[in-house]
Backbone:
């Protein structure tokens, strides 16, 4: 793990689940063999909730970009993240932290984000009406949330 020695007044971060099941690894093997199209329906249903598809052009653009992922690279990065355990590091953070949960996120439900935020001393948890790909789905909400957080911590 890389250590940063600079001074930070705020951290804005998404959190990952931290729990991986065998079904997820089986899915990765199928993605590597069959390509991203194998998992597009499931990934869009869980990550890009139908409630957030009001801007169909935005959704189709994101879906096309997701389908353009290289399956081997996608699986490699996912495995690396699945093995990443930062729980101990999270408890040692001593600067303001914002954790944003999406009420429509079926990949990383708000309860998981809130539990991770609770592990960080003084972290602030905010839930917004968004999904897993919140910076694409609701960029203005995310930006406003981050902006307010940074202003309140004097960053």
Residues:
């Amino acid at each position: 793990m890389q250590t940063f020695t600079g001074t930070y007044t705020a951290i804005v971060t998404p959190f990952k689940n931290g729990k991986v099941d065998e079904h997820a690894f089986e899915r990765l093997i199928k993605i590597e063999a069959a390509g991203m199209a194998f998992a597009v329906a499931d990934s869009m249903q869980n990550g890009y909730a139908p409630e957030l598809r009001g801007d169909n052009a935005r959704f189709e653009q994101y879906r096309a970009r997701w389908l353009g992922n290289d399956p081997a690279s996608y699986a490699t990065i996912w495995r690396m993240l699945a093995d990443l355990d930062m729980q101990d590091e999270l408890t040692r953070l001593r600067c303001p932290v914002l954790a944003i949960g999406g009420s429509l996120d079926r990949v990383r439900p708000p309860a998981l984000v809130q539990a991770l935020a609770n592990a960080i001393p003084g972290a602030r948890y905010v839930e917004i009406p968004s999904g897993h790909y919140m910076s694409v789905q609701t960029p203005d909400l995310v930006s406003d949330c981050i902006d307010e957080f940074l202003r309140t911590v004097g960053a």
About this structure: The longest strand covers residues 97-102. Residues 10 and 96 are 5 Å apart (CA to CA).
